[in-house]
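Hey, can you fold this one?
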Amino acid sequence: MPTRHVLSAVSWLTILALFPSYLRAEEPRALPPGIAPLAEGMRGQLERLQVQAAKIRGLPFKQPVLVGQLDEPALKKQLVALFEEELPAEKLLPLERAAKAFNLIPQEMDLATYYPKLLTSQVGGFYEPKKKYLVIVDREGGLLGPEMAKRVSAATSQRLSETALLHELVHALQDQHYDLEKYGHD
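Sure. Predicted structure:
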């Protein structure tokens, strides 16, 4: 009998050695530096939208989505860094030349300067699949910005904001089930 217990113990130790992730305690999830915790007033809305996202997609959330917020200057800084990483000058210059050759952009336009500005004005939120968090942009005029807020009613602005947030929550939900980083994400 003692041999059976020793073999059982050795079997379990072997299994645990083959799967070291079981030996680690799960790291606490935290927002990266520079991303502020979500404003208290947004939490209820986000919880309601998570329920809707799960219902629409037919998938439950496996864990709560980590959500924070950035102001526009911080967003622009992040987008510039991401832009430089994903599209360095050696890749960007040929694209810029081609766009200018076909008169798709003005000859004097500098895409490295213009594109991050454009994205900053257009992004209301984003899901980061590598680090598993969602960011909402905190800006004047709400999620959609001051220009859009002037053009539409408050109710329409609210619905558009909720649609954008729902879209990003669906990315988070998909990531929890299908690993967006593995398949690519846009």
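The mean pLDDT is 83. Let me know if you want another pass with a different chain boundary.
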